[in-house]
Design brief:
About 40% of the residues lie in helices and about 15% in strands. It is an alpha/beta fold. Among the domains are: about 120 residues, Glutaredoxin (3-Layer(aba) Sandwich); about 110 residues, Glutaredoxin, CATH 3.40.30.10; about 110 residues, Glutaredoxin, CATH 3.40.30. Helix 12 links the parallel strand 12 and strand 13. The protein is globular. The structure holds 2-acetamido-2-deoxy-beta-D-glucopyranose (4 copies). One 2-acetamido-2-deoxy-beta-D-glucopyranose binds next to loops. Belongs to the protein disulfide isomerase family. It comes from Maudiozyma exigua (Yeast).
Length: about 575
Amino acid sequence: MFGNRYLFVSVAIFYLLAFVHGQEQIVEEIVEDVQDVVYENAIVPEGTAIHKLTLSNFASFIKSNDLILGEFTVPWCVHSKILLPELVLAAEKLESEKDIKIFQVDCSIDGPLCDQLGISYYPSLKAFKNHRLLKDNEYTGRRTAQDIFDFMVNQVASPVKRISSEEELNDQYLNKETMDTPVVVYYGLIEDFDPIFDKAANDLFNSFTFVAYQACNETMSGKVVFYLPPVAPEELEQNKHTVRPEEDVFQFENTTATDVDTFKNWLLYTRLPYFDNANIENYRLYMESKLPLAYFFYIAPQEYMEYKEYFGELGKKYRGKMNFLALNAMIFHTHVQFLNMKEQFPLFAIHDLRYNMKYGLPQLSDEEYKAQTEMIKLDRDDMTALVQEFMNGTATAIVKSEEIPTEQHGNVTKIVGLNHDDMVRDPKRDVVVRYFASWCAQSRKFEPIYNNIADMFAGDDETKDKIVFLDVDASANDILSFPVTGFPTVAIYPAGSTEPPIVHNTAAARNNILLFIKEHSFYHLDGFELVKKYHLDDDEEEEAGEIVQDINPTEEDVAHDEL
Ligand SMILES: *[C@@H]1O[C@H](CO)[C@@H](O)[C@H](O)[C@H]1NC(C)=O
Ligand SMILES: *[C@@H]1O[C@H](CO)[C@@H](O)[C@H](O)[C@H]1NC(C)=O
Ligand SMILES: *[C@@H]1O[C@H](CO)[C@@H](O)[C@H](O)[C@H]1NC(C)=O
Ligand SMILES: *[C@@H]1O[C@H](CO)[C@@H](O)[C@H](O)[C@H]1NC(C)=O
């Protein structure tokens, strides 16, 4: 229905998932270019197959259905408007053919419900099975009716095709004429590997076909083999810049690995070429293979051709450790801000997706760049050295940070990327941190509440030396040790602890934060006592009226806890 535009949108959505929310604005810009948006409002009108749930009928609906998919959204969400026609189609087909229901919750009305379920972006699609929300059942696949349908149906049936004849294998799955996704065949008889194969299939069935075939053939049994589909001739013509491996059949060698991630990661990079030119479609695949990604941004096509072989060789050499991708700067120039680099092309940079760390070749100052009369030339030795340094752990990451503040106001101390790690660890005091984004409305709304909490603890002799309150604009600072995924996020680093921080995960409201501090601070500091002692309750309720209401759990809320 949406043709190529749909792909564009799905990449935009993918950006949203792949990068911290601080960069979400970019996505909005991209999406707003899309003209094909069909629904004016993301909330489904009456009379479709989608069930509308609210706080009052949510629990009973979950209890009376074994398998359901929920969409959590708000009326104005652009992504949801785009998704809605597909979701309606999926709901009709699922309900009529499989008796599986899809429902929708409007988080602008039932915010507490959405908070309770940990909804941090819209739309969130979550599957509930046997009356519980399953952790891995977040739907993150392509947002088409067919893919959503397949996802739900596969929650019931195992996505592994179990077959019993070599003929079936060859005719149906390994037939080059009909093969369109990579096929992974497990030929059986590997100790402890069955559950790993099943788990990988459950997670990745949208992208690969998983076949289990117990071969009575000595040469094949005990093997796991990956078959790439042939490249269509027209695609070969279009993508003659792609550097592909010489072969299209690969064997998984690490069958003694006992964790599913090793196997999944192998699948996710084995489908990739050694080097390629990014487009809307393949970019998603690189993001999914969470390997560090080396970017070569170029302006002129001949630049690409000049470096193609060089990067192809690096891609081959670092297979499984790093992917290499070229980006046309004319199209993707704004992407460099995710890499903390300036728009000076060509450029070479590495993004370590696991830790959101960025590395790049040095760039010119703005003055130098302006004065530049010739094209910048990237030195192969410099790039090779950066890759090697990255691999041996000696490369220096580029950290985005504001200046360390020279003066502080109030009882909340402002910190930045450069001093975050030093400031959050205190042997004697509990440290609470608010991670916010200046552009995020919810972050701003929470600020006075947070400041009041800090004032309260600072004003009492018992507590003032036991706890400190910090805040940091996580959209202007890279926090390498703590990747923030939503705003505002509150975390506590208990006094003396070297463990990862404990993250607050209910609605950002005063009583929730006080409870969180009481439970998780080293000293178990009780803010409710302070509220009582200083009679702070009344003003507070007025100030944060709407929020306070949300956090007094009703019976309905309590019932959801069991989800
Ligand atoms: C066993 O499988 C291999 C690889 O598919 C094939 O070359 C060989 O002919 C098969 N052997 C028998 C006895 O079927
Ligand atoms: C095999 O898997 C283990 C994890 O189970 C991993 O640490 C190791 O690096 C893998 N070996 C190879 C050769 O990829
Ligand atoms: C890391 O790699 C760089 C670049 O090749 C090299 O100069 C450096 O000596 C290496 N350091 C270590 C500790 O291996
Ligand atoms: C810090 O907290 C104390 C105690 O509540 C309060 O008296 C003081 O005004 C606060 N400081 C600022 C600058 O708000």
